[in-house]
From TrEMBL:
Keywords: 4Fe-4S, Iron, Iron-sulfur, Metal-binding, Oxidoreductase, Repeat. Its cofactor is [2Fe-2S] cluster. It comes from Undibacterium flavidum. Residues 8-63 form the 4Fe-4S Mo/W bis-MGD-type domain. The lineage of its organism: Bacteria, Pseudomonadati, Pseudomonadota, Betaproteobacteria, Burkholderiales. The chain holds residues 225 to 930 of 957 of the full protein. This is Formate dehydrogenase subunit alpha. In the C-terminal section; belongs to the prokaryotic molybdopterin-containing oxidoreductase family.
Amino acid sequence: DAALAVPDKQVESVCPYCGVGCQLTYNVKDNHILFVEGRDGPANHARLCVKGRYGFDYAHHPHRLTVPLIRRPEAKKTGDFVMDPAHVMDIFREASWEEALALAGGKLKQIRDTKGKKALAGFGSAKGSNEEAYLFQKLVRVGFGSNNVDHCTRLCHASSVTALLEGIGSGAVSNPVMDVTKAEVVIVIGANPTVNHPVAATWIKNAIENGTKLVVMDPRKSDLARMAHRYLQFKPDTDVALLNAMMHVIVHENLVDKDFIDSRTIGYAELEKNVAGYSPELMAPICGIDADTIRDVARLYATSKGSMILWGMGVSQHVHGTDNARCLIALALMTGQIGKPGSGLHPLRGQNNVQGASDAGLIPMMYPDYQRVDNAAARARFEQAWQLPADTLDPQPGLTVVEIMHAIKRGEINGMYIMGENPAMSDPDVNHARESLAALDHLVVQDIFLTETAYLADVILPASAFPEKTGSFTNTDRLVQMGRQAIDPPGQAKQDLWIIQQMAQQLGLDWQYPNVGAVFDEMRHTMPNIVGITWERLEREHAVTYPCRKEGDAGESVVFTKEFPRETGRARFVPADIIPADERPDADYPMVLITGRQLEHWHTGSMTRRAAVLDAIEPDPVALVHPLDLAALGGQPGDIITITSRRGEVSLYARADDSSPQGAVFVPFCYYEAAINKLTNAALDPYGKIPEFKYCAIKVVLGGTE
Ligand code: SF4
């Protein structure tokens, strides 16, 4: 019937999934989305991938939360999630909004007033709008009184952002994805764009057709690798060895851009000294790439008229994630491959608003626009902007995602407010994370489905899905775009901005924002990089790139053309040495686990597994195993295998997949029935505090555990 229906309205918006930020049109009839079409946005030019085109009907799913829920006093909190809506009412009872808000906010206030400001923490969401992220972090900083606020950027690119801020003074990309069409050489390392940024991958393929040379460096052979000029399948965990060897070649063969180094950077001498010990001959056996190939690729990158590096979580999700990113930055700086069209650095941002949520201050050490909380002048600026008495804001950086879980276990954090995040699925060593969430005195979860995290809540506040609200979203290219409301929330579900403000009121704050535009207006006046973008302009133009420092500015899609946003205006080299993964394979756990995403499913699967087409394509949990490893187990594709690490075990289907290197197994983290994060290692990169999702030791046996 939907196929025959004629829409009664069309609403211009953006895709709710990845950081590419494709613009789309919702075709709606009777408050129901019939279908979605691509729109001519700057990042997609009407292209959409399977998620953007077919992943919309989760919003109409019968599992939607439509009324506030309060946990029954007798319902024990256990981490064993049960996906059975009938079972839900054994655990929760329905409540009015008035009762739910009074309990949700009242108990948080009580914990704050009796146990102290640091006894509370909040997780916001990279799937929410900029305005939601901004208000949420403001609520934690002003209402809770600490900087214990974070979101899943900690789990994806925190190490990249740390290295970028340290090295070049900005955590965002230097060039948009589309610049690959202007580059002579493109390196894609630790990223699988055809799966995770599909429309971006189409621009890379178009560039290849026009003569751009693609170099893919990855332990897993992605589809893009099959189109690459060179594919370097280096051994997992050896990024620094490979990248330092490339820099060694560039120094040794005098392929550096001396003018750029002299005029635009500091610290080159230490870098040069450091990479002297990393000759390709020495590094070849470590990283598994022969010395001649390392030399060829180093020359190709250094000598082209324009080289870009795009990277993903294969780089960032290691205990040496910050060091990996430092090496990529150093490669660009020493060759002058940054600061011009078709030449730069692009960490591919994962979720549709992870860039914007980080920009808006949803991180424990920074206010909006990366102004440090431990900087007295920045604190004073925000106290003034938020009309607070002097010295009200906490000068101490807060705790990060995984640190908050540990602090709960130690009894230091007793109450949490989680908006749209699902740490009970997405955190490393998730049994530990679930135990921590269950140990809270009070957990408030605001979401659209009963997620694995909501299952452990004391109060659940039913929120709005992406097409049910209006807000701005910032894509991986620094493009601030307008997402518009297409349908109304179901039942008594409310828009997130309304809920945050109601929670603020329960905490004693009197916030009066008449509409989302008013929140954006306050936010932009605290953020020099977007102060020139007005709500009216966003409504009119749909998308504006930042930096945009004055009203009327066009916005800069390519940055660092003259200087870097550091005190000296110069970028800084930071040398890195090899640090091994926290947990290496051994006789008991001889294989390596790599986790990530599939094309059809998004993050913890709460949306895409409830989208009919996407779920039909990939309905069951699978592990991708090299055919020779599967044969060695005595197994066939489709057999059940059990994967065990020192922290847990899961059973799931095996798929023969020669893109994974022998000895490594890849598992998506979206399946609650086989929550692979029960196995992952919570060891953190010491700088970015990102967990090592891309490497831990496992053993695999044929058969299930039953
Ligand atoms: Fe959505 Fe990303 Fe696909 Fe574009 S590429 S349609 S933003 S999931």
